[in-house]
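Q: what does this look like with cytidine-5'-triphosphate bound?
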Amino acid sequence: MNEKRILLIVTGGIAAYKSLELVRLLKRQGLSVRAVMTQSATEFVTPLSMSVMTEDQVYGHMFDLKEESEIGHIQLSRQADLVVICPATANILAKMAAGISDDLATTILLATDKPVLAVPAMNVRMWNHPATQRNLAQLRADGVHIMAPDEGAMACGEFGPGRLPEPPAIAERICAMLGHDFDIMLTSGRSPTTVPGGAALSAELAHCPLSGQRILVTAGPTHEAIDPVRYIANRSSGRQGFAIAAAAAALGAEVTLIAGPVHLATPPGVARIDVETAIDMQAAVEKALPVDAAIMVAAVADWRAVQAPEQKIKKDGGNIPALNLTENPDILASLATHAHRPRLLIGFAAETEKIVEHAQTKLAKKGCDWIVANDVSGDVMGGANNAFHIVTKDGVDSWPESAKDVIARKLMEKVADALAKG
Ligand code: CTP
């Protein structure tokens, strides 16, 4: 029997207790699991409990002669199909980013040639710290797969991103990476994944055609300051972009969502970066590269004020201030000529007339692969439904009006097909 093997590295965080449940679920899916625990992980979970769950010896010491003679540290990763670090603390991410190997876990990680999935869990401030975000960017560039943490109440009493995703979601992601069928019925206590709009994605989640693909999505408007209290905005709600990010994550992709100012919940399994202006959005996009596909749904403001004064502009008799504007960078067009141009670059076009004609002009002007044109003359912006015209150099594919989450799913399935064809 060709049983897929996972080498699970458990590091020392309060979420380490969930690694036992993860092992149980993985074994129920028919996978074999061998565990390595760091010294600090053993403060949270005993090696004995882990050994009972894996039905195997637990590895921990680099210089344990017995362990090294029975199975050396190089062998441990060589015998695995996938290395999973769960939970991954800020400390191990920092060590990996710097190439430090000072114990068995970090030595395996430096020596392995197998795919690595890190599932971080930490306090929200540690997660948001620029050092951690810098390390994560480095690890992504090094080819490490990162599963975004959930948002919510944390063991330390704070609230925000940093919670370990629930074990069924992690097991599902691992199965997707291994191309191993995920049987949803074999997990317990799993709540359905929902996308904005409230529709529940079905048990088809087991099918993950975007597994291993990195996808960048921009969404929402940008706000461009006129002074500290006033800004230029547009009617984009961000719902379509969030639905696309949710659909991409549900199909197994590693998703970075760069969101303008909107009031929407982060979809499960999506790494979200909030920005305000077009300039901020461009910097965040640059930082998220490289990716396999970028879907630029954001309604980026075309212009910003040349200068936004630090103090509020006061009414001055009958004198009406002139708004002196300058053009914002075109993020989509700059990605098209970027050294790390995504393999598939998709722009959106919000049009009020001659929809397809304008989209065709935009496709050529922006240098992207597809333009998804939508008619915003009705109540599409902020509404629940949308209709797409997918314009490529080969023609136009027009899809009827559907709920934003349904059409998002259809778009991401088309993206998966295109990426699979290379
Ligand atoms: N876009 C961008 N950066 C900008 C403006 C737009 O990345 N500064 C992206 C949007 O995210 C979208 C696409 O370009 O994917 C088209 O945006 P749209 O506003 O329709 O096009 P414009 O170039 O602004 O053209 P116009 O306003 O004349 O229709």
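Residues 218, 278, 296, 298, 300, 302, 328, 330-332, 347-350 surround cytidine-5'-triphosphate (CB under 6 Å). DSSP finds 14 helices and 19 strands in the chain.
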